[in-house]
C-alpha cells in the first residue's frame, strides 16, 4: 500500500459545516425529482408509452448505474485520499450529474435507450459524488458530534427536496398531459440548475485535507493499491466488515422504496400527480424532523441502536404499505417512511464515521457508499421490477423488500461498537 501522511484535519467551523450541508440541500433535489418522483413516472408513462415493461426497464437502469458506482467508488475514494484532491473528484461527478440531468429535458416518447443512458450517467454522477461528500464528515465534526452533524446534512437535504417540490408545483399542475410536457422538461433543467447553485459553496469554502505523499505512484495506481490492501486486511476491521454487510441489505430496501414509491402510489393506489406532490412534501417534512431528532438520539444512545430502531420502523412501513387500501392510509405510511428514511441514513453515516480510521476516510467511504451502498441497490430495484412484471402486482412485489430489512437487522446486531469511539475506532 502506498504510504502517505495526512496533515491535521479540517478545523470544524460553523461556516464550513453550513457550506457542506448546502451541497446536500442541492443534490437531494436530483434525488427526489429524477430518482424518486417525476422522472420515474415520466420514463414509464411518456418515454415507455405506459407499457407494462416500463417497471422492469426502470429497475434495470437504476441497477446498472448502481453497479457501475459499486466498482469505481472504492478505487476513486482511495485515490482521492492519496492525492488530497477529493474536491476534484467530487466536482467531476457533480458536473456529470448536472449536465446529464439538463440533457434529459430533451427526451421524449420512444427515446428509451437515450433516456436510460443519460439517467444512468446522471445517477452515477450523483451517487459517486456522495462518496467524496461523505468523506468530509470526519474532518468537520468530532466523535461526540458525528450524529448531529450528519443529521444536519440530511435535514438540509430533505429541506432542499421540500423546496424543490414547492418550486415544481406550478410546473406539475397539468400532470402528464401532452400540453404540459414542456413544463416537465423545464423542471429537469431547473433541477440541474438548483443542484449547481447550492453545490458551489462547498467547492469555494471547504478545503481539501492536506496530504504529504511519500511515493511517486499515480493516483489511480495508489487507489487500486489501497483497495487491494483493504480487501486483504478487512479482517483487521471486523466491526466495519459486519456493519458493511448489514448496510448492504437494509440500504437495498431503502433505495428500492425510493426508486418505486411514486410508481407504486400512482399505479396501485391511483394517486394523481398533484396528490403525489403533497405526499412527497409530507415525506420531506417528517424526514427533516427525523434527521435532526434522531441525530441527537444517535449521539445519546449510539448510532447502532438508533439504526435498529429505524429498521423496525421500516418493517412496519412495508407491512402497512402492503395492507394499505386507501390514499389516506398511504399518507400515514409516508409519515413513518419520512421519519425512518432520514434517521436511518443519518445514523448509518454516523456509525461508519465512528468505525473508520480518519486518514482513510474516502477509501472506506468508497466501500460504504460504493461497493456496499451502490451494489446493494442493484438487487432490490431489479427484484421489485421483475416481480411486479411477473406477478402483475406491485402490492406483492413490495413484500420482497421486507427480507432486506430483516437481514440487515440480523447482521447489524452482531456489530460491536467500541465504548469510547475515537479517530482510531476502526481498530478491532
Describe the structure.
With 428 residues, this protein is mainly α. 78% of the residues lie in helices and 1% in strands. The protein has a two-stranded antiparallel ribbon. Helix 7 (146-172) runs antiparallel to helix 8. It starts with a strand and ends in a 16-residue tail after the last helix.
Compact overview of the structure:
This protein is mostly helical and 428 residues long. The protein contains 16 helices and 2 strands.
CATH class wording: Mainly Alpha
CATH architecture: Up-down Bundle
CATH superfamily: MFS general substrate transporter like domains
| Main beta-sheet annotation | 2 strands, antiparallel
Question: Can you give the helix content as a percent range?
Answer: over 70%
The CATH topology name reads Growth Hormone, Chain: A
User: Shape, please?
Assistant: globular
Query: What gyration radius follows from the Cα positions, in whole Å?
Result: 20 Å
Sheet with the most strands: spatial strand order: 1-2
Provide the low-confidence segments as ranges. 1-9, 420-428
User: In percent, how much strand structure appears in the residues?
Assistant: under 5%
| Structural domain count | 1
Terminal Cα separation, in Å? 20 Å
Tally the helices. Answer: 16
Secondary-structure element series: EHHHHHHHHEHHHHHHHH
Query: What's the overall average pLDDT, rounded?
Result: 82
Number of E-type strands: 2
Amino acid at each position: 500500500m502506498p504510504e502517505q501522511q495526512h496533515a491535521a484535519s479540517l478545523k470544524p467551523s460553523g461556516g464550513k459545516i453550513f457550506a457542506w450541508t448546502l451541497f446536500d440541500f442541492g443534490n437531494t433535489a436530483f434525488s427526489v425529482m429524477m430518482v424518486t418522483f417525476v422522472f420515474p413516472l415520466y420514463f414509464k408513462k411518456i418515454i415507455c408509452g405506459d407499457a407494462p415493461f416500463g417497471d422492469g426497464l426502470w429497475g434495470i437502469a437504476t441497477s446498472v448505474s448502481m453497479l457501475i458506482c459499486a466498482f469505481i467508488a472504492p478505487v476513486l475514494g482511495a485515490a482521492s485520499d492519496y492525492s488530497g484532491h477529493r474536491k476534484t473528484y467530487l466536482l467531476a461527478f457533480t458536473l456529470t450529474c448536472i449536465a446529464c440531468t439538463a440533457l434529459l429535458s430533451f427526451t421524449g416518447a420512444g427515446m428509451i435507450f437515450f433516456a436510460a443512458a443519460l439517467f444512468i450517467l446522471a445517477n452515477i454522477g450523483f451517487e459517486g459524488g456522495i462518496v467524496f461528500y461523505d468523506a468530509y464528515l470526519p474532518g468537520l465534526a468530532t466523535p461526540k458530534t458525528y450524529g448531529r452533524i450528519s443529521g444536519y446534512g440530511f435535514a438540509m437535504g430533505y429541506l432542499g427536496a421540500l423546496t424543490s417540490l414547492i418550486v415544481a408545483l406550478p410546473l406539475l399542475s397539468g400532470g402528464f398531459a401532452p400540453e404540459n410536457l414542456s413544463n416537465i422538461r423545464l423542471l429537469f433543467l431547473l433541477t440541474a440548475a438548483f443542484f449547481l447553485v447550492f453545490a458551489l459553496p462547498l467547492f469555494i469554502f471547504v478545503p481539501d485535507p492536506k496530504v504529504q505523499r511519500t511515493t511517486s505512484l499515480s493516483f489511480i495506481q495508489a487507489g487500486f493499491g489501497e483497495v487491494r490492501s483493504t480487501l486483504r486486511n478487512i479482517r483487521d476491521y471486523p466491526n466495519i466488515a459486519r456493519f458493511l454487510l448489514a448496510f448492504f441489505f437494509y440500504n437495498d430496501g431503502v433505495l428500492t422504496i425510493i426508486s418505486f414509491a411514486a410508481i407504486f402510489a400512482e399505479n396501485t393506489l391511483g394517486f394523481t400527480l398533484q396528490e403525489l406532490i403533497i405526499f412527497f412534501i409530507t415525506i420531506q417534512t417528517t424526514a427533516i424532523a427525523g434527521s435532526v431528532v434522531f441525530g441527537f438520539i444517535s449521539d445519546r444512545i449510539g448510532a447502532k441502536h438508533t439504526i435498529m430502531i429505524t429498521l423496525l420502523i421500516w418493517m412496519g412501513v412495508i407491512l402497512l404499505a402492503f395492507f394499505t387500501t386507501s390514499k389516506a392510509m398511504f399518507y400515514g405510511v409516508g409519515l413513518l417512511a419520512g421519519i425512518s428514511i432520514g434517521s436511518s441514513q443519518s445514523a448509518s453515516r454516523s456509525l461508519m464515521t465512528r468505525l473508520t480510521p480518519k486518514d482513510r476516510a474516502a477509501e472506506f467511504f468508497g466501500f460504504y457508499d460504493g461497493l456496499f451502498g451502490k451494489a446493494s441497490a442493484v438487487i432490490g430495484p431489479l427484484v421489485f421490477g421483475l416481480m411486479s412484471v411477473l406477478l402483475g402486482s406491485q402490492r406483492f412485489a413490495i413484500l420482497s423488500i421486507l427480507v432486506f430489512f430483516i437481514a440487515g437487522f440480523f447482521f447489524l446486531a452482531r456489530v460491536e461498537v467500541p465504548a469510547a469511539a475515537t479517530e482510531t475506532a476502526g481498530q478491532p
